[in-house]
Amino acid sequence: MPATSGKLSRASALSSIELVGPLTGGRLLFLMALGALTVLLHQTFHYPLRLPGHHGLEAMALLVLGRLSCSSRWAATTVALSAATTATAIGGHEPAAFALTLAPGVVLDLALMAFAGWRQHLFVLPLIVAVAHATKPLARWGLAELSGFHFGSLRAGVLYPLSTHLLYGFAGALIAVVLWTVTVKRLKDQ
Length: 190
Hints:
Blueprint: H1 10-15, H2 25-44, H3 56-69, H4 75-90, H5 97-114, H6 125-133, H7 135-147, H8 159-189
């Protein structure tokens, strides 16, 4: 019988990870951590881009990662709810921030419920997420029109922030889908 060192090989350690599964206590904590990480990254990194929606790059990537990792139909909403709750607890955000942070997760989950075969066609995910992220400027525009609130991102109208939100939402989701696909392929090859 061969002697063992007691250490797990990298291949066996990775192959024991279940990438997709039901909503368990551990997976719920993971989804909540993704939401908190979204807020932490938003608060920590201040890119000098000055473009509306640029934090959608990391926020939508984490949202998609959460949705891909859990078979629960409300996984993205759970990540978004965690992010909204964390942002509210930290404070210093606009009054509509909770709903604006929650909206992309809800839109993503509802869209994926309507498109049952999405896991076999991951290329559509960035398109759906782009639209989900674009709910923010559309909601702000609606609030501005109805209530008179003024949002700095809408100074030049709604088209510019809408297009940048679409772009950053798409890019963030594409990054997550590519990383997910590479990880799944790598695990299958082992």
